[in-house]
Amino acid sequence: MIYLPTIKQLQYLVALHRTRHFGKAAEDCYVTQSTLSAGLRELETLLGVTLVERNRRVVRFTPLGEAVVQRAWRLLAEADSIAELARAAGQPLASELRLGVIPTIAPFLLPALLPGLRAQWPELKLYLREEQSGPACEALGRGQLDCLLLALPYSCGEIEYEPLFDDPIRFAFHPDDLPDPPASIAPDGIDEARLLLLEDGHCLKDHALAACSRATFRPDQSVLGTSLHTLVQMVENRIGMTLLPQMAIDAGILSNTAIQTRPLASPDAKRTIALAWRPSSPRAEEYRLFAQALKEARVG
């Protein structure tokens, strides 16, 4: 007789791989640490192999363990799609929805959208997870997220998506640094030595560089912001100039500052906000409905 791993055992395994800590993995799985450890030992006994090397300081997966984890992710995603089928068969947008949002969208868009969504879809249980684009796309592919609000263009693996709206990118500066600004800023007129950008991991950094339309653009890599709010404070204190999405400006990120903005004279000075999901998801029609609800809530 062939004994197959259980879904629970695979969940324990991928949780440990994600956290690299038995206690944190147990918390993520809502079990005790002893229960998780026992489940993993049972899995290794069942397979007759060692998947995880254990000592007091580090959790290390064997090469075979790494290979098993990758297959476990796919199996769990398929198992989750079975539950999605059942949810999709019921009333649309009346169940749980795990939504990922990137940091350059979440604080500026969600406060305006959520009240309208709650009013239109009162049965919707929306669980939000804010994460940078790369990890968020990985979480979507692994089935940890149902759908994702992100900014395009961005390489997010195999996804389907619904564009919501374009978000212009504007040049932001302190008036003392640019006392007689033109109506629009030509990218080749930007002093790259004074341009402040977000640190690596934020897709807005790539969008900002694309907006400059200069392949050789090399801003100062020694001064990078961890968030848009940090960049605003740097500009306010005349450390440099930056590029901001219109969404953040509309949400009041420049309130109580002297900072001014101008449009960029570039066809690439924008990003497209979109809702993305896995192509294999049986709830695709529900996500399209959700995308339409997001559009209507933003307009409203």
TrEMBL record:
GO terms for molecular function: DNA binding; DNA-binding transcription factor activity. It comes from the Bacteria. The keyword Flavoprotein does not apply. Residues 5-62 form the HTH lysR-type domain. It comes from Sandaracinobacter neustonicus. Belongs to the LysR transcriptional regulatory family. Gene3D superfamilies: Periplasmic binding protein-like II (3.40.190.10), Winged helix-like DNA-binding domain superfamily/Winged helix DNA-binding domain (1.10.10.10). This is LysR family transcriptional regulator. The lineage of its organism: Bacteria, Pseudomonadati, Pseudomonadota, Alphaproteobacteria, Sphingomonadales. PANTHER family: TRANSCRIPTIONAL DUAL REGULATOR HCAR-RELATED, TRANSCRIPTIONAL REGULATOR OF OXIDATIVE STRESS OXYR. PROSITE patterns: HTH_LYSR. The keyword Thylakoid does not apply. Pfam families: HTH_1 (PF00126), LysR_substrate (PF03466). GO terms for cellular component: protein-DNA complex. Keywords: DNA-binding, Transcription, Transcription regulation.
